[in-house]
Write a structure and sequence with these properties.
125 residues; 78% helix; mainly alpha; 5 helices
Length: 125
Amino acid sequence: MTDSSFRRVLRATAVMNVGGFFALAPPFPLLRRMAGVPEAPPLYGWLLALWVLFFGIGYWRLANARTPERLFLVISTAGKATFALLLVVYWLAGELPVAAPLAGSPDLVFAALFAARLYATRPAT
């Protein structure tokens, strides 16, 4: 994947995270119901929504940065994969509707793209 292609991936991730902020923020229960995400106490809803937004800002910044930030990308890869896989685990356990892992599937795709980028740009040993 070229640098410009990966920058587009980062921008798409940033936009998705802004949407995730609105889906997770407490004032928007309809979006959570559509995605199959259960209600949480407002403190936890805001905490999760804001972290999603902050990472979205980080993706946008990284898309426009001149230098790569591998640590941010490593943490992002782990976070996106963990989020998506937890939705699958809770769906398999009967705790979430199928809409939840489907809504989280783009995170797994982005995690795979991030991991591929990290592998392709790994430092020589």
